[in-house]
Amino acid sequence: MLSLTRTTAPEILEALSHSRFRARFHLSDKLLAYAREKNDVLAEHARKLLKERLAPVRLHGNDGRQTPMKGHPVFVAQHATALCCRGCIAKWYGIDPARNLTSDELEAAVQIVLTWIARQVQSAPAHSAQKARRTASGAAGAVSGKQLSLF
Ligand SMILES: [Zn+2]
Hints:
The chain is mainly alpha-helical and about 150 residues long. The chain has one domain. The protein has eight helices and no strands. The longest helix is centred in the last third of the chain and has 21 residues, at about 105-125. The structure holds zinc ion (ZN). Zinc ion binds near residues 64, 84, 85, 87 and 88. Zinc ion (ZN) binds near residues 64, 84, 85, 87 and 88.
């Protein structure tokens, strides 16, 4: 069992890489471009999204549907790192879904998500970066996607 606060982010990502389901998540060119462009504020976004959607106990029975599959790099990272819902957090990290995450756990989750995004950005081939820049500048006028326009 992984621990959010006692297992390091690289160890957690290593363990997740053996899950076929988790390993199939990747950032699209558009989200890679967004992650590069918004690098300075990604941590802030991750903290806000996880704090609002994940840290509190879900009172209305909609756990498992609070994290979209796309629309923001943090959302994709959450699915890739089993930090998408309290059910997955319980299964992978052994945290009781009936209690709120502690601030230490929340911060650890933020760091795991950010580490996953940073690795996606680093491992993206150069041609994908160029293509993504074109995509990003092309989409800038149109404000691409509802989720991105949140920020
Ligand atoms: Zn989940």
